[in-house]
Specification:
Protein name: EamA-like transporter family protein
Largest sheet: none
Pfam families: EamA (PF00892)
Structural class: mainly alpha
Shape: globular
Helix content: over 70%
Keywords: Membrane, Transmembrane, Transmembrane helix
Order of helices and strands: HHHHHHH
Family: Belongs to the EamA transporter family.
Number of strands: 0
Distance between the termini: 32 Å
Number of domains: 2
Radius of gyration: 19 Å
Membrane topology: Multi-pass membrane protein
Number of helices: 7
Length: 139
């Protein structure tokens, strides 16, 4: 396993489990709003939000708006709402299916080739989700 994958897994666990106490007290939209504000201010010290390269025309603004609203705001809101309703553990299990669904969309919609090793990895993801979701028998 690569080091960056381990770090990503660690922070996904923190992202899923850390806000559970906050979700008991505040709504998902309040938590996301504050998180994005604090994260945006913190990241602005690394990369200035005003130093954007490229051509900014009508379509660029439109696509950027769509990505912000649908790809970020609604996605995070849905994830935290799911964590509040079904719990962090089940939510993170369901989130692990996302790379698999993206791969399947790439195969069937974009005609991207998939090697046998890719299929094996997909099978391992699905089998892990199934094994973790099975109820454990009393020991």
């Amino acid at each position: 396993m690569k080091k960056d994958q381990l770090v990503k897994g660690f922070f996904l666990a923190i992202y899923t489990l850390q806000p559970m106490k906050l979700l008991e007290k505040y709504s998902s939209s309040v938590i996301i709003g504050w998180g994005m504000l604090i994260g945006g201010i913190g990241f602005s010290f690394i990369k200035s939000p005003f130093a954007v390269e490229g051509i900014w025309d009508y379509s660029t603004y439109l696509y950027t708006f769509i990505i912000i609203i649908f790809g970020t705001l609604i996605a995070f809101y849905a994830y935290l709402s799911a964590a509040k309703i079904i719990g962090g553990q089940k939510t993170s299990l369901l989130a692990s299916v996302e790379p698999l669904s993206a791969a399947l969309l790439g195969i069937f919609w974009l005609n991207i080739s998939f090697s046998p090793l890719d299929w094996l990895g997909s099978l391992l993801i699905v089998s892990t989700i199934v094994l973790l979701s099975l109820k454990k028998n009393a020991v």
